[in-house]
Amino acid sequence: NAGVTQTPKFQVLKTGQSMTLQCAQDMNHEYMSWYRQDPGMGLRLIHYSVGAGITDQGEVPNGYNVSRSTTEDFPLRLLSAAPSQTSVYFCASSRDRYNQPQHFGDGTRLSIL
Amino acid sequence: EDKVVQSPLSLVVHEGDTVTLNCSYEVTNFRSLLWYKQEKKAPTFLFMLTSSGIEKKSGRLSSILDKKELFSILNITATQTGDSAIYLCAVDHAGKSTFGDGTTLTVKP
Question: A88 — phi, psi (to 5°)?
């Protein structure tokens, strides 16, 4: 019973590099989302998806892309990493977008030098 | 602008104390308010509240929502060191969630 799986757990990048954070869930959830968490702050929504083929922007989408080609996977792409993107990234899923608690992955700690 | 504000930002208590954590919100199209507990890694779900005045309870933890005054409280009685964590409040609205900055609770032996 894996739940939400994020890879990698840690990553160090240089400014300007690109990379993809992976997120997969095995609960057949329709709704998936990406958040970033900075020290002393709560979670800020980057992008979300209400189902395969549908994505939308959250509160802080600049510098990030997403796609949802399958129900299970929701990768987050950093196009050109910047030090301001140093953060802990969480992926979450829920059965649908209406009144459902989210299940979170263990996070990816990303440092941009 | 959608906003969720938690208070206090941090709290230090001793085992056995009772604590009350606050969450106020201003959002459009409110659907529900959720509380999560975050220890070392991923937040884990505690409560979801959709109706005013109905208390949700799980062991020593309880929560209630006031939709007229736009706030919720999370109570923890007889605190234990294992309750030390960040407590996050999130409001679901218009199909997405807005989180507060969290309350860091430290329970000393």
Answer: -105, 130
Residue from the list B42, B50, B96 with its beta carbon closest to the beta carbon of A104? B42
Q: Where are the beta strands (DSSP E) in A14-81?
A: 19-25, 31-37, 43-51, 54-57, 64-66, 76-78
Residues in A touching B98 (Cβ below 8 Å): 45, 59
- What CA–CA distance (Å, rounded) separates A45 from B53? 29
Contact B42/A90, CB-based, under 8 Å? yes
| Two structure tokens written together for B16 | 């056995």
Candidates A1, A19, A23; CA nearest to A112 is A19
Q: Does B30 touch chain A (CB under 8 A)?
A: no
Q: Does A97 contact B95 at a Cβ distance shorter than 8 Å?
A: yes
pLDDT, tens only, B8-48: 999 999 999 999 999 999 998 899 999 999 998 899 999 99
pLDDT tens digits for A51-83? 999 999 999 999 999 999 999 999 999 999 999
Question: In the predicted model, what is the mean pLDDT of residues A73-101?
Answer: 93
Contacts of B48 in chain A (CB under 8 A): 99, 101
pLDDT digits (tens, 9 = 90+) for B93-107: 877 899 999 999 999
| Per-residue b or e along A77-103, where b marks 16 or more CB atoms closer than 10 Å to that residue's CB | ebeebeeebbbbbbbbbbeebeebbbb
